[in-house]
Design a protein that fits this description.
This protein is α/β, with parallel strands linked by helices. It is 50% helix and 16% strand. The two termini are 67 Å apart.
Length: 344
C-alpha cells in the first residue's frame, strides 16, 4: 500500500509538472491530472493537440490507473489475508482443542498463569489457557499454546475448552471473586473435575472450597513462608531444592517423609555420638543426609562412623511423626518440620 501510494504521488507530480511546462496554470494542471487518472468523464481543460501533451496525458492515464489498482489491491489483500488467517487459525485451534482429553484448563494468563503454562508446556502436559487480554493471546500464539479469548466464567467458553473431557482446572486469576465464580461454574459443569484455585486472601479459601475447589493455593502466604524459611532454615531449604531437582516427580510428602534442620546444643544427648547410632540403633529410623559444622564446612552423605559435635547443623530426613522427637533430643526444644517452604 505504501509503495502504491508513493507511485501514485510520483505520477501526479510528473503530470502536474508536465502541464506547467506546457504553459498551463497550477489549478488547471492539478485538475487535469485528477480527472485523467480517475476517469470521471469530464472534458479536457484545454485542447490537447500537440504530441508531447498527448504523450504526457497517456502516461498519466496508464501509470495513474496502475498505481491506483496496485494501492487498492494491496489494501484488499491485507484485509482478506488477515480475515482468512484469523478464520483458519480459529478453526485449527478449535480442532486441536476438540482432540484433547484429560487436559488442564488454565483460567487466567497473568504472571502466575503464564508461569504455570510454561511449566505444563515444558512437561508436555496438554492444556488450554483462557484470558480476556489481547497481550495474553499474543503471548500464547507466540509460544504455540492453545488459547481461548474470553471470560473464563462463561459456560460456552468452558464448553469450547472441553471442560467435560478435562481432568484439571486451575483458576489462577488475580481477582478472588472471579476465581470463586469460575470455580462455581466449573464444578456445576463437571462434578469429577479436579479444581485448583488461587486465593489472595485467606478468608477466600473457605469460599473457594465451598464452591467446589479441591485445592486452594494462597500464593502470597506461600511466597512469604518460602522467604521466611530461607532466612530461618536456609540449609534445609537448599537441601530440599537439590533433592527435588534430582528426584523429579518424587513426592516425599506422599510417602510420609519430611525434612528437618536441627542444631545440636551443648547439652544434647546426640552430641559426641556416631551417626550410625542415631540412624540405626535409635527407637526410630532417621537418615542424616547432610551436616554443616560450626566452621561452615558441609558434608553430604556423611558416613555412619562420623561423630557429631555440639553446634553441628543436621539435615535429617525421616517420618513426620518421628522428627519432633529427634529435634527434642538436640536440646533445641520441639523441632520445626519443613516441606516445600511451608513450616509446621
Amino acid at each position: 500500500m505504501l509503495g502504491g501510494l508513493a507511485l501514485l504521488s510520483a505520477v501526479c507530480g510528473i503530470g502536474v509538472l508536465g502541464y506547467l511546462l506546457a504553459g498551463w496554470g497550477v489549478q488547471d494542471s492539478l485538475y487535469m491530472v485528477v480527472i485523467t487518472i480517475f476517469g470521471v468523464g469530464y472534458g479536457e481543460i484545454r485542447p490537447v493537440t500537440d504530441w508531447p501533451l498527448r504523450a504526457l496525458t497517456v502516461f498519466v492515464i496508464v501509470a495513474g490507473y496502475g498505481a491506483v489498482i496496485y494501492t487498492v489491491g494491496g489494501f484488499i489483500q491485507m484485509v482478506v489475508d488477515g480475515q482468512l488467517n484469523k478464520a483458519f487459525g480459529a478453526r485449527r485451534m478449535k480442532k486441536d482443542i476438540d482432540a484433547l482429553s484429560g487436559h488442564t484448563i488454565v483460567c487466567g494468563f497473568g504472571r502466575m498463569g503464564r508461569s504455570l503454562a510454561a511449566e505444563l508446556h515444558e512437561a508436555g502436559h496438554p492444556f488450554v489457557a483462557i484470558d480476556t487480554g489481547p497481550e495474553a493471546a499474543e503471548h500464547a500464539e507466540l509460544h504455540g499454546m492453545l488459547f481461548l479469548n474470553g471470560d473464563a466464567s462463561d459456560e460456552d467458553l468452558l464448553q469450547a475448552a472441553g471442560i467435560e473431557r478435562a481432568s484439571v482446572l486451575a483458576a489462577v486469576i488475580s481477582d478472588d471473586a472471579t476465581n470463586v465464580f469460575v470455580t462455581l461454574t466449573a464444578r456445576a459443569m463437571n462434578r469429577e473435575l479436579r479444581i485448583i484455585a488461587r486465593g489472595e486472601n485467606r478468608r477466600t479459601e473457605e469460599k473457594l472450597r465451598k464452591c467446589g475447589a479441591d485445592v486452594v493455593v494462597l500464593a502470597t502466604e506461600i511466597g512469604a513462608s518460602r522467604i521466611a524459611h530461607q532466612i530461618v532454615r536456609p540449609t534445609a531449604e537448599e537441601m530440599f531444592e537439590s533433592i527435588s531437582e534430582a528426584s523429579g516427580d518424587l513426592d516425599l510428602r506422599a510417602m510420609g517423609l519430611e525434612f528437618d534442620e536441627i542444631e545440636l546444643q551443648p547439652n544434647s544427648p546426640l552430641a559426641n555420638r556416631l551417626i550410625g547410632e542415631i540412624e540405626v540403633r535409635g527407637a526410630h529410623a532417621y537418615l542424616i543426609v547432610g551436616i554443616r559444622s560450626m566452621d561452615g564446612a558441609t558434608t553430604m552423605h556423611p558416613s555412619a562412623d562420623l561423630r557429631l559435635a555440639a553446634g553441628d547443623r543436621l539435615i535429617v530426613l525421616g517420618y513426620e511423626d518421628d522428627l519432633p522427637e529427634l529435634a527434642a533430643k538436640s536440646g533445641a526444644g520441639p523441632g520445626t518440620i519443613t516441606y516445600r517452604g511451608a513450616t509446621g
